[in-house]
Every structure is written in C-alpha cells, then in structure tokens.
Amino acid sequence: MGENIGAAARAMANFGLSDLRLVAPRDGWPNPKASDTAGKALNIIDDATVHEDVPAALADCNFVLATTARERAMSLPVMEVREAMSQLYTRASRGEKCAVMFGPERTGLENEDMALADAVVTIPVSTEYASLNIGQAVVVCAYEWFSHVHTAGATTFARSVAQPNALQAVPELATREQLQGLLGQLELALDDVNFWRVPEKKDIMWRNIRATLVRAGLSEQEIATWRGVVKALRGK
Amino acid sequence: MGENIGAAARAMANFGLSDLRLVAPRDGWPNPKASDTAGKALNIIDDATVHEDVPAALADCNFVLATTARERAMSLPVMEVREAMSQLYTRASRGEKCAVMFGPERTGLENEDMALADAVVTIPVSTEYASLNIGQAVVVCAYEWFSHVHTAGATTFARSVAQPNALQAVPELATREQLQGLLGQLELALDDVNFWRVPEKKDIMWRNIRATLVRAGLSEQEIATWRGVVKALRGK
Q: What are the pLDDT digits (tens) for B181-190?
C-alpha cells in the first residue's frame, strides 16, 4: 500500500535512514499515495529504487535482517529488535552494507525471502494484539537504529558538544544560601501567624515543608518569585 | 485528526495500553476515520473518553509526562523516552496513575498544558527531519513502555528482590485534582492581594510559580500542608 510506503519513508527520514528499496509494489510506482503520507521525506520517495524480486533488491548487501510477526520453523537466529539494531549498527560502522526487510502487511515475508536473511528480528508486542502495522514496525526498527547513532554521537563528540540542549533545559539551581533566605522568611512568617499551634509539632512540620521546596530545585529567579509570594500573602 | 487517533489506538493495543483520553477533538467524536486506522483496536476507540480541557483529562493522574518536539524555556526536567518510560513503569508498578500527553500534530502542546506535566519526554531524531508524525511518536513511547513490561515478565523475581529501596524512594504523588486544588487556592489568594500588579504579567508569572509546585512532586499530605500554609499566611 502506498500509504505504508510513505509512512515508512517518513520514519526513515526521522531516524536518519535514506535508502528505500521496493520489491514489485502492488500498485505500481511511483504512487501518489506514498507521497501523501511521507511528510517532508519526499527525497526518499523520489530516490527509492524498484526491484523485480528480493534477491535483486538485496544483491549488494552484506547483512540482512528479516522482520516477522510469526514464529517460523526456520533455522535462523532470532533477535529482539534492540539487540538486532545494535548488531546492525556495529556492522554498518565497519562499512558493511546492511538491510532490514519488511514483508507485505497481511501475508508477511515468504519463506524463500526469509531464507535470504542472516537473522530474524522480532518486536516485543502484547499477546492481545500482536499484529503491527508495517509503517509502525518500521518506526520501531528505525528508532532503535537511531538510538545507537545518537548514543555513539554523544560519546564520540564528547558530552559537552552533544548535550547542550539537555543541559540548558535543566534549571540552574539557586545557591543553598539563596534557598535559605526563602526558607528563613517563610519560617518567620509561619511563626508570625502561629501556624504550628502546638510548638512540639513545629519540628516535623517545618522539616516536611522545607523538603518540598528543596525538592523543587528552585532557580535564583524562582526563589525571588517565591519570596514575593510569601511577602504578598502576608499583605506586607 | 481521526487517522492519527486511530493509529495511536492501534499502537497502544500492540504494546499493552488501553486508556485513551481525548481533549476537545477537532472533528468531534466519535470519528469514523479513527476506526479506519485503528485495526483491531476498536475497543480502545469505543472506550476512549472525551474531555473539555487538559486539567479535566488529567484529574485523577499522579504522574504526567509531556511530549514535545521543541526545546522550551520551561523549567521542567527533560528525559529521553527510554529513561522516561522506565520511570513511568516504576511508578505505574506501584499503583500510581500515569499519563503521557501528546499535543496536536502541527502546533504541539500549549505552554499552559506543559505546565501541568512533571517532566518533558524527548525522542531522539535526526536533525535533518525532526518532526515525528503523532501516531509514530505514540508508537515509540508505547514500544519503550512495553519493553519494560516485557523485560519485567522475564525477571519478576529478580526485580522484586533487587529494587524495593529504589521503589520506596519515589514519593507517592497526589492526584492532579488535588494539586489543582492547591493551585486554585494559591491563585485566588494571589489575585486577592493584587500580586501581579500588571495583569499582562500574570500569565507567565503564574506559569512559573505553578511549575515549581508541579516539579516538587507533592504527596497528598504535602498538598494538605501547603493548603494550610497558604491559608495561614493570608491570616484566614
């Protein structure tokens, strides 16, 4: 189905893949429905190659994985997708040409196509509904592939280069002294309004309140805001 | 879009999830297009609940993750999907009600919806084409969720022995409704004392204050304590 080819192309682009090979597509090629679901991955659609049969499509490949939903009595190693993509990544990094093969949605891969694979990839799914849409199966494989590219990138180019966005997103914590300023102000205000009622209870109550503010990991700006809140609520 | 809702439902069923909540669906509900792409996950479509706004949809939830493609200047922890689903699994195993929130495909989540989340989830994608289709984003999250269910099934005994301390250390969160109660009370109190001074500033100031309280991960008991603090400071 064109829609599935387009969805597969989009997932490939999202996860850094580009070489799409089609074997005897049911509705011919090109297929406008593929472009409809490919989003901005139109270059993958345009560059896709069409092959008469599976051996022709795999001719230049060194390592081939076959995806299947069914258990088969084939003498092939079976790997879960995480492990499979890890091995694929290792091989591709060495310059081996690797392929992941998907069958038609309803029927899956023929046994004679499976026989061309080095291993079978399975995706763990619920036993209640084990049939993945082919576009969604491509998403999972491509995502697992990219998680290796991504992780490798982070270690190769050093964390300081690879993770600036993640670091920026973590709020810059105020100093303990600034936090202490807010806590002191709040404690005084609560003393003032006789919040504790029974003095013996203050210790544990105050410890609990303090803990929530420490846990919030407040920035300098947020400390200032909260000091304003406490002051305003007291009407002072 | 109905097609995306259907694709999300299908991915949920494939990976053992079932509780689908929709907020003000653009084309109304029920939507036949959702059933068209849901495959055999029609029970999820039939059981989906429709909510007027995000706070209503999240009312009974203890822990909420927000997905976003964009980096935002929000003071929320940012986690990659693998780590995020690991934490979600730990919390859900303890009986906490957990949610993953997805925004409309084009615009994503509004900042005020993001402010209701405990953390932001990112999916590592290629910089060349970083925009995931929403159905595909659901596939990745649901797949990572299920990888924990799946692994846990294989090692139930080891986990229950090895992790009790780690599990105890995660605070038991209040529901979103309880948190909303505290936030509503605080907002009214701040309105009351004319805290914002300039009305245009309220939006961003209030969002920042709210974010610190969401981030603190308050328990039911702590919510009650803070409600007492706000009330006492107002001298009421």
A: 999 999 999 9
In this prediction the ipTM stands at: 0.73
Please report, in angstroms and rounded to a whole number, the separation of the first and last CA atoms in chain B. 48
User: Are residues B156 and B180 both part of a single domain?
Assistant: no
Residues 3-22 of chain B with CB under 8 A from chain A are 7, 10-11, 13-16
Task: Give the predicted TM-score (pTM) of the model.
Answer: 0.75
Asked if the structure places residue B141 within a domain, the reply is yes
Model confidence pLDDT, tens digit, residues A64-117 = 899 986 656 566 788 999 999 999 998 888 888 899 999 987 788 888 888 788
> B95 Cβ partners below 8 Å, 6+ apart?
none
CATH code, A42: 3.40.1280.10
Tell me whether residue A221 is in a domain.
yes
In which residue are the tokens 């929000």 written?
B74
Domain closes at, from B166, B200, B217: B166
- Whether residue A138 sits in one domain with residue A49: yes
Q: Are residues B114 and B215 in the same domain?
A: no
CB proximity under 8 Å: B 76-135 to A? 76-78, 82, 120, 123-126, 128-133, 135
Distance separating alpha carbons of residues A12 and A8, to the nearest angstrom: 6
Residue of B nearest to A170 (CA): B77
- The alpha-carbon gap from B74 to the nearest alpha carbon of chain A, in Å, equals 7
Domain count, chain A: 2
Contact B65, B119 (CB under 8 A): yes
Closest CA in chain B for residue A135: B136
Burial of B212 (0-12, 13-18, 19+ CB in 10 A): buried
Q: Helix-strand-coil percent breakdown of chain A, rounded to 5?
A: 55, 10, 35
Contact A155/B at CB under 8 A: no
By the CB < 8 Å criterion, does B139 face chain A?
yes
Q: Domain span at residue A189?
A: 176-235
In this structure, are B14 and B123 located in the same domain?
yes
Residue of A nearest to B205 (CA): A225
The alpha carbon of residue A234 is apart from the nearest alpha carbon of chain B, in Å, by 5
Judge if A131 and A183 occupy the same domain: no
CB within 8 Å: B212 and A232? no
Are A116 and A55 spatial neighbours (Cβ–Cβ below 8 Å)? yes
Residues A125 and A184 in one domain: no
Residues of chain A in contact with residue B76, where contact means CB-CB under 8 angstroms, are 169
Cβ contact, residue pair B124, A133, below 8 Å: no
User: Of A126, A144, A166, which marks where a domain is finished?
Assistant: A166
Query: Which residues of A fall within a CB distance of 8 Å from B67?
Result: none
Q: Are B195 and A131 in contact (CB < 8 Å)?
A: no
Q: Are residues A212 and A159 in the same domain?
A: no
